[in-house]
Design a protein that fits this description.
This protein is α/β, with parallel strands linked by helices. It is about 25% helix and about 35% strand. Helix 2 packs parallel to helix 3. The protein is globular and about 50 Å long.
């Protein structure tokens, strides 16, 4: 069983309030990222998971517009500290939250306990060797498309885990890699997108919410 006491002993954390669609949550975030950085290789496996991204807020709010249905399954990939997935679980969705980084998984588990969320599965997922079972009605992610070399693995993941007629929801910043990803995805899925502008520390951050649908799209 996960121990919040051991988590607090292992990590130096702050607690950040988070409000979505009338639901008030709190999330543990690292006080500093230094201990998660490989000083000999600053750019490989940089701890992007340590931040709650603006795109995560966009995805979290969108989940509040989806009416929970019995038996409907959601898979979040690259979940970081589990923010969007835990919001979804709080809203009543059947969530499986996945991440590759072990520290991020610990934070996601701690955040589930912090918010008294029990209807959720949190586990490790390697995109290049995925081992979880089953298929999902929705696959979710925020800021998961950072490197072009990840694109084939992501498409493989979608093909393996998305149910026929299912939906992929991704919230991404505007980057060259994002556009390269869209060009590959349009070979396999119908695409709809909506641009939103988030304000953070006095700056305007553009975020695109992508909806990719399998051929037999259901009315959502």
């Amino acid at each position: 069983m996960f121990s919040l006491e051991k988590f607090r002993q292992k990590y130096d954390v702050d607690e950040t309030p988070y409000r979505v669609a009338g639901h008030a949550l709190s999330f543990f975030v690292p006080q500093k990222i230094d201990s998660f950085i490989n000083q000999d290789d600053l750019f490989t496996n940089f701890p992007l998971w340590c931040k709650i991204w603006e795109a995560t807020a966009v995805l979290s709010f969108h989940l509040s517009t989806i009416v929970p249905e019995p038996g409907q399954r959601f898979l979040e990939i690259g979940a970081g500290m589990g923010v969007a997935g835990l919001v979804g679980a709080k809203l009543g969705h059947n969530m499986t939250i996945t991440e590759y980084n072990d520290d991020a998984i610990e934070f996601a588990k701690a955040n589930a306990v912090l918010n008294n969320i029990h209807n959720v599965t949190i586990c490790k997922l390697d995109w290049n060797a995925p081992l979880i079972e089953g298929k999902f009605d929705y696959i979710l992610g925020s800021e998961v498309v950072f490197k072009e070399e990840d694109i084939p693995g992501l498409i493989f993941l979608f093909k393996r885990y998305l149910k026929p007629g299912g939906t992929i929801l991704l919230a991404e910043g505007l980057r060259k890699t994002t556009m390269a990803f869209v060009k590959q995805m349009e070979k396999h899925y119908a695409i709809a997108m909506k641009k939103q502008t988030m304000k953070s520390q006095g700056k305007e951050i553009p975020v695109i919410l992508f909806k990719f649908t399998d051929g037999n799209e259901r009315n959502r």
